[in-house]
Amino acid sequence: MLVNLGQLLQQLLYFLWKIPSPLNQSDLFNRYRNATARLFLFDWDGTLTPIVRDPAATVPTPAVLEILQKLSSHPKNEFWIISGRDPSFLEKHFSSVPSIGLSAEHGAFVRRPDHADWENASGLGDKAWQDEAMTIFEEFTDKTPGSVIERKNVSITWHYRNAALEEGAVRSEECRNHLEEDVVQSNSDLEVIDGKMCLEIRPRSVSKGDIVQSIIAGFANKRKEPTAPDFVLCMGDDVTDEGLLESFDG
Predict the structure, then answer these.
(1) Per-residue confidence at 160, pLDDT binned at 50, 70, 90?
(2) Is 43 assigned a catalytic role?
């Protein structure tokens, strides 16, 4: 079983990197095989799936779903997808793998492994700022052909991956300045994040790093002998994943 699981892990890494991995895979597999409590924390867009021109087209392949199913169903493993996407998107594409945990909108909503219900982990109230931000995003969408707005429960993302490259970069900087001056300046609880060919405004209290701490606490509490994971594989691809990775500094 260990050899087969190691092969599954190797297959997953192949899907992530079609080029040689910067990781020492031999060391990685040895650590995996010797571990007794394994935790996987993976971003979705740009990590488990490539960035594509249409954000709605990032659909997991049957091969990836099969690997996730087998890895997450092993009693020593716990597998999480920690994404900026909203709960409905993740539920639609990963409902066939109930053994994985799902974290939506950078940790604002959580569906724990083998649970059907979503938890609201944000505790957020007033969202009046969203209308102000939408007005700015709509203005820049109108003058940036190919850009689209993704309005979620607690955040708003403006995607410009389909815009002309130089124009998208310039408009993004202009849009960010307007958001900072017209929305964030009067609401210090908000922040603007530059993602991979996207711009997002969200509450500062929503963080992938915070939800990781909750996941680790839950990881220990559900075991007969509470323990921290002795193997963690954590992967992301842009600035929105820094909180995820910084959770393990030191």
Answers:
(1) very high
(2) yes
Among the options 27, 43, 86, 238, which is catalytic?
Answer: 43
* CA dist list (Å): 4 to 7, 9, 223, 230, 231: 5, 9, 24, 20, 18
Determine phi and psi for 111, rounding to 5 degrees. Answer: -120, 110
Q: H-type helices in 143-225, by residue range?
A: 165-179, 208-221
Would you put residue 105 in left (φ > 0), alpha (ψ -120 to 50) or beta?
A: left
pLDDT band at 7 (very low <50, low <70, confident <90, very high): low
Q: Which structure tokens are listed for 219?
A: 């990881």
CA gap 49, 242 in Å, rounded: 18
Among residues 72, 41, 108, the alpha carbon closest in space to that of 246 is found at: 41
Q: Are strands 38-42 and 77-82 parallel, antiparallel or unpaired?
A: parallel
Question: Which tokens go with 82?
Answer: 């920690």
